[in-house]
Prior knowledge:
- By secondary structure, this protein is of the alpha+beta class.
- The chain has helices at 12-25, 36-44, 96-110, 125-133, 149-159; strands at 2-6, 51-57, 60-72, 77-87, 116-118.
- It has a single domain (2-159), classed as Aminopeptidase.
- Helices cover 36% and strands 24% of the residues.
Amino acid sequence: MLNIRPATKEDVGLILEFIYALAEYEREPHAVKATEMDLLRDGFGPEPRYRCLIAEQDGVPAAFALYFYNYSTWRGRAGIYLEDLFVKPEFRKRGIGKALLLHLAKLAVEQQCARLEWSVLDWNKPAIDFYEKMGAVRMSEWFIMRTQGKALQKMAELAEK
């Protein structure tokens, strides 16, 4: 039996395990810098910066979905951004990923969110096919822009001048 539940602070070790497994799958096993303390602080403190769902199959953790809220200025509504969705290999092809995505869609509708969105790596054809089958549309006219590390530090320093 599949059970989807909100993560609790007792799940931070499990969440980190899922993050490491996802990083391995995405061919970036050494890129994870997050710690249990980071996850505890940012997900379960006074102002949570993310939320997480845990999917359990017959009581065994099988998958997770980590998300946060963004805001559409044009629509005047919040949205849900799905940061990570990962199903352990031994639990794939059982509808667990689909169940998590549908659960998030239901949350978005219940909370009157304008949209549910996420990113997918261009080489991850199984995920792209899955998302398109679920009704998702690629936003080809938009590019993801990112500043991090030294470039982010440099931008912050420019603000001080």
